[in-house]
Amino acid sequence: MDANTFAKYEARAKIIKAMAHPTRLFLVDELARSGPRCVCELTEMVGADISTVSRHLAILKGVGIVEDQRRGAQVYYRLRVQCVLDFFNCVESVLKCNLVDQRRLLVSEP
Amino acid sequence: MDANTFAKYEARAKIIKAMAHPTRLFLVDELARSGPRCVCELTEMVGADISTVSRHLAILKGVGIVEDQRRGAQVYYRLRVQCVLDFFNCVESVLKCNLVDQRRLLVSEP
DNA sequence: CGAATGTTTGCAAGTTTAGCCAAATGGGCA
DNA sequence: TGCCCATTTGGCTAAACTTGCAAACATTCG
Q: In the CATH scheme, what architecture does the domain B3-81 have?
């Protein structure tokens, strides 16, 4: 794989990596189904230090998954692309597939 | 976020994290568009140590994205779910969106 | 069996990431 | 201006990830 090709995959991996964390996944999911939220609201939902949540949001913003907008003293974040829900659907497929295979191992012979 | 909810997102994040690496993304992409490949073929395409590629494949297998099958001396890997291409499509959307915004910053005023 | 080929695993070093506390910044308001 | 609230950033430590080399395993072939 030449440097150019690697760079292409690296750019894509960065975006995926931004979602590869439980808290960030939760944040994306929450923004996807409930619309824009300010950092304080999200922090309360997550239940972690506000600085931690802020950093997670900064990571998502850095790769272009979310965008922020200041409203007075608060900063609101919202999804920038809709298709992230496809991620969830596919992940569900994998989990479901895993479950089916695990059950097969329990019930029948290898 | 209670422990149960966190565990749910954690399980999903693990699957996403498996794809959050340039080499593994390449491997998934290759398997998606060219079908099953053995470790040696993939190793040559990637251009890294075979032990490294083997480990990456093991990670993908560990979360259920790929499965392996021995054929004589070689081990062939193949995708276990089709929808991973949705990942790529969405990532492209994000990249495209980023590009549009960058151009807007260049051309017009903030 | 012994050699050759293909793959996985143990190990060690270097790099990255997550989380918290404290300090700094930005905006609204008396 | 000075204070308060919301958010971000710096600094630090512990944990996780990545990688190549070498050794161990697996399988085929002579």
A: Orthogonal Bundle (1.10)
What is d(CA A94, CA B63) in angstroms, rounded to the nearest whole number?
8
CB-based contact B60:B28 (threshold 8 Å): yes
Pick from A83, A84, A75, A88: which is nearest to A40 by CA?
Answer: A75
| Minimum CA–C1' distance nucleotide for A17 | C17
The H-assigned helical ranges of chain B are 3-19, 22-34, 39-46, 50-62, 84-107
110 residues of chain B, pLDDT tens digit each: 999 999 999 999 999 999 999 999 999 999 999 999 999 999 999 999 999 999 999 999 999 999 999 999 999 999 999 998 888 999 999 999 999 988 888 876 44
Distance (Å) from the alpha carbon of A29 to chain B's nearest alpha carbon:
10
